[in-house]
Specification:
The structure holds 2 protein chains of 2 kinds.
Chain A (H helix, E strand, L loop, with lengths): L1 E6 L5 H10 L4 E7 L3 E9 L4 H28 L1
Antiparallel strand pairs in A: 1-3, 2-3
Chain B lengths: L19 E2 L3 E7 L5 H11 L3 E9 L2 E8 L5 H27 L1 H17 L3 H10 L13 H5 L8
Antiparallel strand pairs in B: 1-2, 2-4, 3-4
Helix pairs in contact in B: 1-2
Classes of the chains: A alpha+beta, B alpha+beta.
Chain lengths: ~80, ~160
């Protein structure tokens, strides 16, 4: 079981939630929210090897964070 | 070690460029006072297709970037990957600063273009203008056929 800590100052919690939802079919992912971080607990992995699934899940969370932040910045400018 | 935990500095092969190298990853700290978070995000966004990218905080204004190769990679390859990332970081930071520095002038030009577009006559205005013109006047007799203008002088000498 892997624990992945996403710091709120770097990852949007909504983006991590979106990533967890997107990877639900590949792994059992539960999210634990704390003050300055969201911890993803990755349980049984069903689609592919653990390293690939966990790393891809992290990439997805980062990509979602960037997209959401840029979208928010663009809507602020309008 | 779980992702998100901080790692010790030297953990594997030597990096020519000063990065921290592991068996399948390279990591390094980025100072946010030099490279803003937006620039770091910009670099990450471009690299998620090439490798696995993970960010952690290693200090109050420090972001630790960890690049993990998708396939087995040598120390030199990891070094090159991280080197390209930091080059991209520099490019992103420069773009960001230029964009901020020229924001006012871009706003001015956009506003000027919009003002010009708003004051430009519409097709209806142009048609109305044509209708209003006095087309009956023909001081140069452009509408008069050549035969009428030339009279007898215009006849064929044969």
């Amino acid at each position: 079981m892997g624990r992945i800590t996403f710091e709120r100052s770097l990852y949007s919690p909504e983006a991590v939630e979106a990533a967890a939802a997107a990877y639900a079919e590949y792994a059992e992912i539960t999210l634990e929210r704390s003050g300055d971080a969201v911890v993803a607990v990755v349980g049984a992995v069903t689609g592919g090897d653990r390293r690939t699934v966990e790393s891809s899940f992290c990439n997805f969370a980062l990509q979602e964070t960037v997209v959401r932040m840029r979208r928010a910045a663009a809507s602020e400018e309008e | 070690m779980a992702l998100g935990e901080h790692e010790s500095r030297s953990e594997g092969p030597e990096s020519r460029l000063g990065f921290s190298l592991g068996p399948d990853h390279a990591s390094f700290d980025v100072d946010e006072t030099v490279y803003p978070l937006d620039a770091i995000y910009g670099g990450c966004y471009l690299f998620v297709d090439r490798c696995y990218v993970f960010l952690t905080r290693s200090g109050p204004r420090l972001v630790n970037v960890r690049l993990t190769s998708r396939e087995p990679a040598t120390a030199a390859e990891l070094d090159a990957l991280a080197g390209e990332f930091v080059n991209e970081l520099l490019s992103q930071a420069t773009r960001l600063r230029l964009s901020q520095a020229t924001a006012r002038i871009r706003e001015y030009y956009t506003a000027a273009a919009l003002r010009a577009a708003a004051s430009a006559p519409s097709v209806d205005d142009l048609l109305a203008e044509l209708d209003a013109e006095e087309l009956g006047d023909d001081p140069l007799e452009i509408a008069v056929p050549w035969e009428e203008k030339a009279g007898d002088k215009g006849t064929d000498p044969k």
